[in-house]
Amino acid sequence: xxxxxxxxxxxxxxxxxxxxxxxxxxxxxxxxxxxxxxxxxxxxxxxxxxxxxxxxxxxxxxxxxxxxxxxxxxxxxxxxxxxxxxxxxxxxxxxxxxxxxxxxxxxxxxxxxxxxxxxxxxxxxxxxxxxxxxxxxxxxxxxxxxxxxxxxxxxxxxxxxxxxxxxxxxxxxxxxxxxxxxxxxxxxxxxxxxxxxxxxxxxxxxxxxxxxxxxxxxxxxxxxxxxxxxxxxxxxxxxxxxxxxxxxxxxxxxxxxxxxxxxxxxxxxxxxxxxxxxxxxxxxxxxxxxxxxxxxxxxxxxxxxxxxxxxxxxxxxxxxxxxxxxxxxxxxxxxxxxxxxxxxxxxxxxxxxxxxxxxxxxxxxxxxxxxxxxxxxxxxxxxxxxxxxxxxxxxxxxxxxxxxxxxxxxxxxxxxxxxxxxxxxxxxxxxxx
Length: 433
What we know:
Elements: H1 18-28, H2 36-60, H3 78-86, H4 128-141, H5 149-169, H6 175-194, H7 205-226, H8 231-247, H9 252-261, H10 264-268, H11 275-286, H12 290-299, H13 303-309, H14 313-328, E1 333-334, H15 335-342, H16 347-355, E2 359-362, E3 365-368, H17 382-385, H18 392-397, H19 424-432
Antiparallel strand pairs: 1-3, 2-3
């Protein structure tokens, strides 16, 4: 019995007919690849042949112009799995207990598209169900680590960006698409607050905010396409309308413009019972009614809403103290009274904030004596953290992210002995050509 040779390819030029190309593809079956390098060579050879086949079909006018539909049923393709090991680009979250690359833990990374890139072929793009499973896996199984927050964030940001890219490429408009983008949005909102103390080299706030804005844009498109099909969509849209408004809190004209551009959003948002309160808060913000502003922030907001608003707290408090200084002039004020208005719990923080705003503090009272100066005082608002209900997974997944078991992320086109076997996804794709 003749033994199948290890990986070897003909040096001849590509055949000119689709039939001969398919024969070359068939000859790849059974090739034995002992190393990762050999496996990558074979997979790229396969992709080159399929691209050539596509070129012939397009030239003959037999290629249907359809929207992109993903066929990959693994969180990460075989090509990427082997290629990243060769390049030594394997995250610690993709290694097993022995620090070996684990097929079961690999998740497709985000890469900018390049000329001649084969990863835009349908069998490299994940199906909606696979994207759904990958999103759930990331949010539920890749745990945030206090001592490695930057590393964790960069991994999550990269993998979720790849998921968003494939949702966009396939123009997915469905309940699952909504749930995925909502979870990724919450991830970025969560990080806006939780990672605020990291250096800019570790956590870029502007880049993270860009991710939030992009997610909101995708959600707006999907919500509009879904319309009012179910109450759940309306509830979710209302939640994210609140986030969108709070993200723009420092730009009131932009908020007003958003309603003038999309007046129906107010109608759709009525399912959010707190919408009238939110609009009153925005009005109070525009009119500098600081008593109402701080009351709303502490008593009426959710944890994720405060993850968006926390960045405004310091400037709001400084502005409020400036107004208080003008209103009360040389009058002595109780520190506890000011702390209650500004929602600052610790006396030491009230004193620091007051002194840096031009107040003189004596005992339990304060008096304005000078103009305020710019400051970088950091106040720990513990009451924000008390709003968090559950761990990271509970916060970002929400209540309607339900995943059935059965995602097989270990599927490979190579046997344990390194023999290449053309998988079902490729077979399906070739049969459509």
